[in-house]
Structure formats: structure tokens, C-alpha cells
């Protein structure tokens, strides 16, 4: 591995003044939350429009980073052990360093630019060539001023080919990226409309992008995809090196690869072409135009590199789709929601429409779309084209949100009617997200696939929220102040250096993830843990930046893990290999993970004897880096199981010893859950995992703790009714009264998580300062209680199901279960409200 002395880096980036320290740098970092190897990382305090990297230096310092590249006028008095490299432009320094690193290698490097298709072409080239090349490439679509240097920094001596993509949105940006990538082979995919506003015209944009190719010796491009903006081997010949070879392809004119026919059949396309006076062909497992274009571009590369024809044919057949960064969620009334808010340009929209159609199968499809901002295209043309695309993709309904799109409603009304006969409501328009929300009724959406595509300012999260969930009268109140009180109670019992991982799995034990996580983050817990990746994604979307461990990640969630910086627990060789394979396929290395050992719980985990074998794999693959090693106790609350608990700990300690020796770097060690914190203080190690205690419940009735209840579940009385002695209440006439009675019907049932075991007097609720017993069977959405003995009860009164007056533990006992199940069983239709005192 190539490493750099910090002194050397100071020279490369022309840092000002004397530089102290002799740190060795292996990793570059721009995000203080992503610290993995603090000792060998260099933090670049990059300043963007929305954030100033210098504000995160304290956090990075706290996480162990000691070397920083900062802007000259930064005041650094409070960081004693830090080395600061001062430069006038931090981003430029990052690029200079990466460019220097790039110059250490003399291998072919493919540089890709163009308006669309960069990432897919890059990924497909990787799929096509990785069996006989050791390829380093941009992870995902790291193609920006920051992404490119970070991608190139990954180059190491073992690589035989580099593939990097570069994207620009304004003039003079490519001048900075060209020396970083320094491609020897260029691919110019096309000139489309994206970022048109950053340039004078398409020709200028094409020439700016072509800067990437100013030193290449081979250039691959599609003639009609660049014309009329650029003619590389004709009138723009002097723009390129004199010895540059051009490899063009075209459907309509003479070219190195002349496409002669495209035949689509049962999901495949046979593409015929003429090349060096010969007829050749490939078949790809796609039929859409974008995939065909991208595959042809890749074909050119393989031909240019001299790949054998039979080889090419065989590889092309096996191309796999490159995953899009979009998620499908279940919505109201059996709908599915596809929320694509990553970009708002039309090309990504058309890709999303295609994806929507693909997902929907035969179901109805609806597009909810905001004004398209900064397209650089005249509005009329833009919306006209959008209307055509709707027809082309056979979209059933459009809901336009925004004043611009509303001005062109006639365009849509026309095509939607043509397409659908005269369907009512096939095109609806609203001036703003607000007015949509006011008028929207979730019943308008049923059994359909809905694509949400909104520019950020339109805050489509709110629409997504509306379509995602339903709420009704019953409310669970979460007292966040009480939760923080509980956190502090436990912290009193921890060693100062012991970290806290807050368990927020299962919707924070039913309390609601994002809100709970936000206060925990504010009060500086060190880690969060969730059960499934989706829960982590929710947290990230809500702006949670703490590291998050995911305990039960599966293959379907790998993409989310990476996109949202979630750290999976690796508990078996199966999951290890699957994740390794995925990371490798994405060109990602050193992804943070947590290794779990089974020490007696016999649920998830490697056997402790497998520690060495895991390390061998980790070492060989280097796709993952171990942040922590842990195990889980089966009976920490039970004194009868203390001997077993000690055995479990001893096993984990052995495994950690092996891991430590084999890995050669530090990781966090942890085993204690809530009950163990007080009962087994010796086992706090570097971190504890605080779960149910946070929520105010601890089965260890320790007098040194004073926990406060966090959740209160309340509902209201829907109706009061007087009944006569001998009459019955509810299904199956189970609740027969022995006297004239007053019965209240309350708005909660087993569908809310109020177990049927509570029925027929088993449970009580709290009304008007007193307890009232449940009468009869619990219904799905309602429950009846006997309020005969309570005076002054009225319809609409509030009823406490649990909280300050009825403890969760008590309720759990009535249902023959444990508090965990009660808390997590409260269904999602029960609205959560948060209070802070
Ligand atoms: C849920 C969970 C915890 C927390 O347990 P509590 O008893 O709620 O403190 C700790 N570790 C693991 C692995 C868990 O799954």
C-alpha cells in the first residue's frame, strides 16, 4: 500500500509554514462521521455552499483524527496534538494530492464523462472486464470535484486498470478533474440537457467536458450523441492530441462501429454492426434505448482493447442491471411509493418512469411531480416533452405540483385524455405542496404505484408521509425528557470511558425512531443500533449522523447500508461472503462492520472458535473493517444464570484476544445490555448496549435507579351506554353484567396492539382518576370498559391504557407477556406524539 508522510503531503499541496508531526497518511476524509482509521487519516475541511468543514474539526478531533488540511485563516488554538496543513483552497489541495497520487501509476485509465450513462457504462465495463483485470473504479457515482479525487486515491500498485467518471455542472470544473484522473482512454457518452444552465450553450458545454480528454490517446464516442455540439475527429480535431485515435459509433452514418440493426425479442436485444468490414453482433438482456446505447459504448471499448469476439458475445449476455438509488415503500390502500428525490433533472426522471413501469407490472401508475427546476430548457418545450414521455411510458395519471407545471396543464390534459379515453382526474394540478396536502384525500390512491419526484424546495417528504401512513384517534405520548433522565441514570453507573450504544430497534421499542434518535444524538450517546436496515434508513433521512449498527442486515438491504452509512453486524460466513461480494461489486473497501459471536444465546453469531478464520478473510479481502466485536447475554437479569453469564463473557474475551492479534488494529468490545449494566459492572468493557432501560423499564428492581416512564398510551371514549342487569357486552356475549351498569366504548382494540388477553376483566384502564375493568372480549378496533363506579364520566373523555397510573410491567403481566412485547406491539396506526418538558 502506498502511504504518505504528512510532511510529504505538505509539500505536495504547498501548505504554508512549518509542519510538525510525522504521521503516516493512508486515508483521506471529508466527513467527520465516517472516521474508521483515525490514526492514518487526513481530514480535509472542505467548505461548500451549505456546510463549512472547519465546523466539524472538533468532532473529527474527538474521534481521534490528528491531521487536518484547513483554510489559511483558520484558528486552531484548541487542538493541541493536531497537525494543520494550511492552504488557501482546501478542495484544490485535495485535488492536487490525488493528482500527485495518480502520477505514481503507469496503467491504462479510462475516463468517462457525458450527460448520462456514466455510472452504468463504468459499472458495465467492470462487469465485462473484471475477470482478467484488477480494476480500480469510482464507487457508485463519485464523479464530483470531491468524489473524483477520493476515487483516484484508491489506486494501488496491484491495479491494472482504472475506470473513473467525471461530472461537471459549470465551466472550468473539468480543468481541475483532468489532472486527477489523467485518463489514457476517454469515453464521451453524450451531450444532454443536464446542467445546461451552467454553460453558454451546448457547444461550450461539450468542449468543457472534452477537457477531460485533452491528453487521451483513444477516444470513444457516439457521433449523433455529440453532434451538433462536437465533432471530435472532424472539425474539432485540433482540440485533441495529434496522436489520439478515435473510435466512434453511429446508427446513421459511417463510423468505426456502424450499427446496422437492433432486434428486440423476449427481453433481449440483438445488435448488429459493421466493424472493419465485417458483420458482427452482440445480444444483451435489455430492450430499452438507454441500456442499448450504454452497451454499445461498452462494446466499443472491448473492441478497441482487442477482446475476442466470442468472448464479447458471451460477456454481453450476462450484463446485469445497475441498481438505481430508489426505494419502493408500502403506502396507504395497498399502494406502493417510489420516492426519487435524489435529482430533479429530466433524464433521471425518464429513468425513474421506466423503473416505475417495471415495478408496477400491470398495476396503475401515478406520477406526482413538482416543477422541474434549472433544466436549462424553455419551459414549454420541457413540459411538452414530459407529456410525451408520460404517454410513452404509459403512465395513468399525473399530479403536477407547482406554478410552472400548472401553467402547462393543457399539454398534459390533452395527452392523458388521448391515452386513457376521457379519464377523469388523469391530470391534476396544484400550485404548491401545501395546496395539494390540503385537498388530497388518501382514498384517491388505491392499488397503484406512485412515483414521487420533487425538487427539494417542494418538500415532497410531506406528501410521502401522507401516503405512507394512516393515523387514528389513539395516541402514544413519548416523554423525551424522561428518556434523557433515564439515560443519565444509567450513565452514573458507567466508567467514564465506556461508550453507550442506544438500542432503537423496532421503532425504538415502539416509541418512534427518528424523534427518539434525535434527542439521543443531542445528548451524545455514541452509537445507535437498529434491527433492520430500513430502520436505519429512516434515521438517516431524519438527519441522524451518529454511527448506526444494523443487527440483522440481509442481501436486499446492502444497497441501503452503503447509501446510508449503516454498519451491519456480520454474524456468519454466509452473510460475510454475501456482503463482501456486494462491496466488491461496488468497488467499496474498508466498510465498517461489527462482528458478533455466539457465546451461548444460540441465536446469531460466529462460534468463538471461528475468530481466526474470519480474520483471515477480512485480511485477504479488505472490503470490511471491524469497528466492534461483541456478543449478547442470554440471562443478565437473572441471578440463577450468573454462572452462565460469566462463561459467556469469558468466551467473548477469548475471541476478542484472537481478533486483536490477527487484525492488528483496535475495535470496540461490548456485551452488556440494560440489566447487565448494574448487575455485572465488570463487563461494561468499551461500550454497553442500553435498551429497555432507556424507555423506563428495568426488570432489575434496583433501588439505586429511579427510572421514569417514557411512554403513555391514551385513547378516548367513543360512546357511553347504560345497560340493564343480565344484559351482555360484546362478541359472544362474554361480558354479562350482574347489575345495571354504565359501559364506555373506547377507541382501542387488538389491531392497535391491545391484546385480546386483556379482555373479560383481565386488564384495567385509568379514567377520571380511577381504574375501570375491561368487560367482554376485546374487539379489533374497540374495547368496552365498565365505568359504573366512576362518577362524572363523559363521552370524549381521555382514557390511559398505560403510563403513570398503569405501569407497562403491570400490563404485561395481565397479558402474560413481557414489557418488551407490549411496547413493540403497539401498532403503527397509533400516532406517536412527543413531549419535552
Ligand atoms: C435488544 C438488544 C439489546 C438491548 O437489550 P435490553 O434488555 O433492552 O437492554 C442489547 N443487545 C442486543 C444484541 C439486542 O438485540
Structure overview:
One of its GO terms (molecular function) is ATP binding. Belongs to the alanine racemase family. Pathway: Amino-acid biosynthesis; D-alanine biosynthesis; D-alanine from L-alanine: step 1/1. Its cofactor is pyridoxal 5'-phosphate. With 837 residues, the protein is an alpha/beta fold. The chain folds into 5 domains: 92 residues, Udp-n-acetylmuramoylalanyl-d-glutamate--2,6- Diaminopimelate Ligase, Chain: A, domain 1; 213 residues, 3-Layer(aba) Sandwich (UDP-N-acetylmuramoyl-L-alanine:D-glutamate ligase); 135 residues, Mur ligase, C-terminal domain (Protein-Tyrosine Phosphatase, Chain A); 202 residues, Alanine racemase (TIM Barrel, Alpha-Beta Barrel), CATH 3.20.20; 126 residues, Lyase, Ornithine Decarboxylase, Chain A, domain 1 (Beta Barrel). The protein contains 27 helices and 40 strands. It has a 9-stranded mixed β-sheet. Strands 23, 24, 25, 26, 27, 28, 29, 30 and 31 form a 9-stranded parallel β-sheet that branches. A 6-stranded mixed β-sheet has the order 16-17-21-18-19-20, with helices on both faces. Strand 13 and strand 14 form a beta hairpin. The chain is globular, with a radius of gyration of 31 Å. The two termini are 54 Å apart. The mean pLDDT is 90. The site of pyridoxal-5'-phosphate has 11 residues, from helix 25 and strand 31. The site of pyridoxal-5'-phosphate (PLP) has 11 residues, from helix 25 and strand 31.
Amino acid at each position: 500500500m502506498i502511504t504518505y508522510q504528512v510532511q510529504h503531503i505538505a509539500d505536495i499541496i504547498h501548505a504554508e509554514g512549518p509542519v510538525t508531526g510525522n504521521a503516516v497518511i493512508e486515508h483521506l476524509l471529508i466527513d467527520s462521521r465516517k472516521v474508521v482509521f483515525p490514526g492514518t487519516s487526513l481530514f480535509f475541511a472542505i467548505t461548500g455552499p451549505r456546510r463549512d468543514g472547519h465546523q466539524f474539526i472538533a468532532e473529527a478531533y474527538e474521534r481521534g483524527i490528528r491531521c487536518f488540511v484547513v483554510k489559511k485563516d483558520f484558528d486552531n488554538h484548541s487542538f493541541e496534538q493536531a497537525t494543520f496543513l494550511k492552504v488557501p483552497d482546501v478542495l484544490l489541495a485535495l485535488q492536487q494530492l490525488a493528482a500527485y497520487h495518480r502520477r505514481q501509476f503507469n496503467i491504462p485509465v479510462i475516463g468517462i464523462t457525458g450527460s448520462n450513462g456514466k455510472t452504468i457504462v463504468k459499472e458495465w465495463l467492470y462487469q465485462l472486464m473484471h475477470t482478467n483485470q484488477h480494476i480500480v473504479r469510482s464507487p457508485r457515482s463519485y464523479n464530483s470535484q470531491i468524489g473524483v479525487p477520493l476515487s483516484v486515491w484508491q489506486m494501488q500498485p496491484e491495479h491494472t486498470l482504472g475506470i473513473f467518471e467525471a461530472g461537471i455542472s459549470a465551466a472550468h470544473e473539468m480543468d481541475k478533474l483532468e489532472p486527477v484522473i489523467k485518463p489514457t482512454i476517454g469515453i464521451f457518452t453524450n451531450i444532454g440537457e443536464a446542467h445546461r444552465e451552467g454553460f453558454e450553450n451546448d457547444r461550450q458545454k461539450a468542449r468543457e467536458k472534452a477537457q477531460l480528454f485533452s491528453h487521451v490517446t483513444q477516444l470513444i464516442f457516439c457521433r449523433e450523441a455529440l453532434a451538433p455540439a462536437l465533432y471530435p475527429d472532424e472539425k474539432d480535431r485540433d482540440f485533441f492530441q495529434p496522436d489520439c485515435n478515435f473510435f466512434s459509433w453511429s446508427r446513421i452514418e459511417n463510423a468505426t462501429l456502424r450499427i446496422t440493426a437492433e432486434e428486440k425479442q423476449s427481453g433481449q436485444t440483438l445488435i448488429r454492426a459493421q466493424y472493419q468490414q465485417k458483420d458482427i453482433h452482440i445480444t444483451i438482456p435489455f430492450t430499452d434505448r438507454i441500456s442499448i446505447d450504454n452497451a454499445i459504448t461498452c462494446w466499443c471499448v472491448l473492441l478497441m482493447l482487442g477482446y475476442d469476439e466470442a468472448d464479447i458475445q458471451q460477456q454481453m449476455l450476462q450484463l446485469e442491471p445497475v441498481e438505481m438509488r430508489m426505494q419502493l415503500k408500502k403506502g396507504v390502500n395497498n399502494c406502493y411509493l417510489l420516492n426519487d428525490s435524489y435529482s430533479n433533472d429530466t433524464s433521471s426522471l425518464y429513468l425513474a418512469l421506466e423503473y416505475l413501469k417495471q415495478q408496477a407490472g400491470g398495476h396503475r401508475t401515478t406520477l406526482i411531480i413538482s416543477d422541474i427546476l434549472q433544466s436549462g430548457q424553455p419551459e414549454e418545450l420541457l413540459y411538452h416533452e414530459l407529456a410525451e414521455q408520460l404517454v410513452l411510458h404509459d403512465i395513468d395519471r399525473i399530479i403536477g405540483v407547482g406554478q410552472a407545471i400548472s401553467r402547462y396543464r393543457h399539454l398534459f390534459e390533452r395527452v392523458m385524455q388521448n391515452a386513457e379515453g376521457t379519464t377523469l382526474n388523469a391530470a391534476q394540478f396544484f400550485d404548491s405542496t401545501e395546496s395539494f396536502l390540503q385537498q388530497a384525500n388518501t382514498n384517491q390512491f388505491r392499488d397503484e404505484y406512485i412515483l414521487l419526484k420533487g425538487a427539494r424546495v417542494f418538500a415532497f417528504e410531506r406528501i410521502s408521509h401522507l401516503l405512507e401512513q394512516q393515523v387514528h384517534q389513539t395516541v402514544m405520548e413519548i416523554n423525551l425528557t424522561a428518556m434523557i433522565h433515564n439515560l443519565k441514570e444509567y450513565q452514573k453507573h458507567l466508567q467514564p470511558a465506556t461508550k453507550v450504544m442506544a438500542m432503537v430497534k423496532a421503532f425504538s421499542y415502539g416509541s418512534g425512531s427518528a424523534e427518539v434518535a434525535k434527542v439521543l444524538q443531542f445528548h451524545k450517546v455514541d452509537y445507535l443500533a437498529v434491527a433492520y436496515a430500513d430502520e436505519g434508513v429512516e434515521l438517516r433521512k431524519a438527519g441522524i449522523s451518529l454511527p448506526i449498527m444494523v443487527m440483522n442486515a440481509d442481501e436486499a438491504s446492502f444497497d441501503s447500508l452503503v447509501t446510508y452509512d449503516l454498519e451491519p453486524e456480520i454474524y456468519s460466513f454466509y452473510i460475510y461472503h454475501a456482503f463482501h461480494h456486494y462491496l466488491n461489486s461496488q468497488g467499496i473497501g474498508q466498510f465498517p462492520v461489527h462482528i458478533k459471536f455466539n457465546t451461548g444465546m444460540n441465536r446469531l453469531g460466529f462460534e468463538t472458535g471461528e475468530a481466526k478464520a474470519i480474520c483471515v478473510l477480512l485480511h485477504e479481502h479488505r472490503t470490511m473493517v471491524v469497528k466492534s466485536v461483541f456478543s449478547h447475554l442470554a440471562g443478565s437479569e437473572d441471578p440463577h444464570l450468573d454462572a452462565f453469564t460469566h462463561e459467556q463473557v469469558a468466551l467473548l474475551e477469548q475471541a476478542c484476544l484472537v481478533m486483536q492479534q490477527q487484525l492488528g488494529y483496535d475495535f470496540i468490545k461490548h456485551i452488556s445490555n440494560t440489566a447487565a449494566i448494574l448487575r455485572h459492572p465488570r463487563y461494561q468493557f468499551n461500550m454497553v448496549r442500553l435498551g429497555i432501560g432507556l424507555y423506563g423499564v428495568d426488570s432489575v428492581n434496583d433501588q439505586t435507579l429511579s427510572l421514569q416512564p417514557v411512554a403513555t398510551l391514551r385513547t378516548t371514549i367513543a360512546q357511553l351506554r347504560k345497560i340493564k342487569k343480565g344484559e351482555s357486552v360484546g362478541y359472544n356475549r362474554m361480558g354479562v353484567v350482574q347489575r345495571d351498569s354504565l359501559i364506555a366504548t373506547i377507541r382501542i382494540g387488538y389491531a392497535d396492539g391491545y391484546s385480546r388477553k386483556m379482555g373479560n376483566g383481565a386488564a384495567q384502564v385509568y379514567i377520571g382518576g380511577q381504574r375501570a375493568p375491561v368487560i367482554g372480549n376485546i374487539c379489533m378496533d374497540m374495547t368496552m370498559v365498565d365505568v359504573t363506579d366512576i362518577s362524572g364520566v363523559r363521552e370524549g373523555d381521555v382514557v390511559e391504557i398505560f403510563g403513570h397510573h398503569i405501569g407497562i410491567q403491570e400490563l404485561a403481566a395481565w397479558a402474560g407477556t413481557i414489557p418488551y412485547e407490549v411496547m413493540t406491539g403497539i401498532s403503527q396506526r397509533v400516532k406517536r406524539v412527543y413531549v419535552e418538558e
